[in-house]
Design brief:
Length: 143
């Protein structure tokens, strides 16, 4: 579902109702070097400026930080807004957490405080969850 690169390895996360391994680790050339985090139902995995891996699981307002391969500890809680069960969350270059579901983008500060939202014009908002915006339009400058 999502992928992150920490400068050395890729982490590819999956989600869904079936139990099993959810986080694959590949080296820079793409070789499989491990699978971790059984049972975690990821909605996003991403890195911060230091290359540390963070993740959000389904129905959780908590962003977790990876402490060892496949082991995560709570990092911060996203507050306010209407963070959906399926929302993918990432951190942008300014340290702002950005989430999307159903064509609505929500922003939260580096501490998790709600900053506001914007609806994307022309967004399909259908399954698979928020994987595209039709056409070649650009998101609003407020993002």
């Amino acid at each position: 579902m999502t992928i992150a690169f920490d400068g050395t390895n890729y982490r590819s996360a999956t989600s869904g109702s079936a139990a099993g391994t959810r986080l694959a680790k590949c080296d820079a050339p793409g070789n499989d070097v491990g699978a971790y985090a059984p049972g975690l139902d990821f909605r996003s995995v991403f890195t911060d400026d230091g290359g540390r891996i963070h993740a959000r699981t389904r129905s959780s307002a908590t962003v977790c930080q990876q402490t060892a391969d496949g082991a995560f500890s709570p990092y911060l809680t996203l507050s306010g807004g209407t963070l959906g069960d399926q929302s993918a969350v990432v951190r942008n270059n300014a340290g702002v957490f950005v989430a999307i579901e159903g064509g609505t983008v929500e922003r939260r500060s580096a501490t998790g405080a709600y900053l506001g939202s914007v609806a994307l014009s022309g967004h399909s908002g259908s399954y698979p969850h928020d994987r595209g915006k039709r056409g070649s339009g650009r998101p609003p400058a407020s993002l």
